[in-house]
């Protein structure tokens, strides 16, 4: 309940902050009154909302259509979250890579409120068929995409930062994304950023994996996730039973 109240206070705080920043002559009292009514309805709907996974705070979006911190693109996507053993379908959600949070669009009447969910509560989620899990004991705790889970296990992790193009007159920061992988094999975890590091992890089957990659026209440059997943699967196929 305390988390729900925190969410409600975040709504109210966001509204009051925005009100303080806008000159009174621009926002009529009647419009302010309408927003206060909406906030009251939002508070009531959240207190008695059956979707108990909604724990977090109001989200303030950043970026544009082509320059953003979100997974894949800056559009609302279908997916779902797991909370206390139950799965909740979400019609509109995003994954903010920079802040490592799931964002949903909570509709109250005809108004939509973006909310970032507490990643200590939402330990698993799905977005357009891609499955993510929160790994608390990783070197960098956060959400990782589950790519392959058998004897060998593979997760993908995105990192993102802002970079200013020195040749641009606008000096607008660009969001830059990179991906690396966590591989668990032979009772050890390995961080992998390129094919050389991958072959080092699978060194006992390196020659066979190189042949497999060439025979199947796999490209690490154009399809990092797919290539790593298929090579990990082939590695398990080449390993003797109970080798790990």
Topology:
Elements: H1 2-21, H2 29-47, E1 56-58, E2 77-83, E3 86-96, E4 101-108, E5 111-117, E6 124-127, E7 130-135, E8 142-149, E9 153-164, E10 173-185, E11 188-192, H3 195-201, H4 206-215, H5 224-238
Helix pairs in contact: 1-2, 4-5
Q: What is the general shape?
A: globular
Mean pLDDT across all residues, rounded? 82
Q: How is the main sheet built?
A: 11 strands, antiparallel
Oligomer: single chain
Estimate what percentage of residues fall within beta strands. 25-35%
Instruction: Please tally the β strands and state the result.
Output: 11
Radius of gyration: 22 Å
Class derived from helix and strand content: alpha+beta
What is the terminal separation in angstroms?
A: 45 Å
| Count, helices | 5
What's the domain count?
2
Residue runs with pLDDT of under 50 for 5 or more positions: 15-27
Listing every helix as H and every strand as E from the N terminus to the C terminus, the arrangement reads: HHEEEEEEEEEEEHHH
Short key terms for the protein model shown above:
single chain; 244 residues; alpha+beta; 2 domains; eleven-stranded antiparallel sheet; 5 helices; 29% helix
């Amino acid at each position: 309940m305390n988390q729900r109240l925190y969410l409600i206070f975040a709504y109210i705080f966001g509204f009051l902050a925005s009100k303080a920043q806008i000159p009174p002559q621009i926002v009529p009292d009647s419009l302010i009154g309408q927003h206060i009514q909406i906030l009251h309805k939002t508070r009531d709907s959240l207190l008695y909302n059956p979707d108990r996974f909604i724990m977090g705070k109001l989200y303030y979006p950043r970026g544009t259509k082509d320059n953003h911190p979100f997974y894949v693109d800056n559009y609302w996507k279908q997916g779902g979250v797991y909370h206390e053993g139950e799965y909740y379908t979400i019609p509109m959600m995003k994954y903010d890579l920079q802040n490592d949070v799931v964002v949903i669009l909570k509709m109250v009447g005809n108004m939509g409120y973006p909310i970032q969910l507490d990643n200590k509560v939402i330990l698993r989620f799905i977005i357009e068929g891609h499955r993510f899990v929160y790994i608390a004991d990783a070197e960098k705790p956060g959400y990782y995409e589950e790519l392959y889970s058998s004897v060998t296990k593979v997760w993908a992790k995105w990192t993102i930062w802002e970079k200013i193009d020195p040749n641009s007159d606008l000096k607008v920061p660009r969001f830059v994304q990179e991906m690396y992988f966590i591989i668990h094999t032979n009772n050890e975890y390995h961080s992998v950023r390129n094919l050389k590091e991958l072959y080092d992890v699978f060194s006992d089957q390196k020659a066979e994996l190189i042949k497999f990659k060439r025979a199947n026209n796999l490209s690490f440059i154009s399809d990092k996730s797919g290539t790593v997943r298929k090579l990990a699967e082939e590695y398990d196929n080449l390993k003797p039973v109970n080798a790990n």
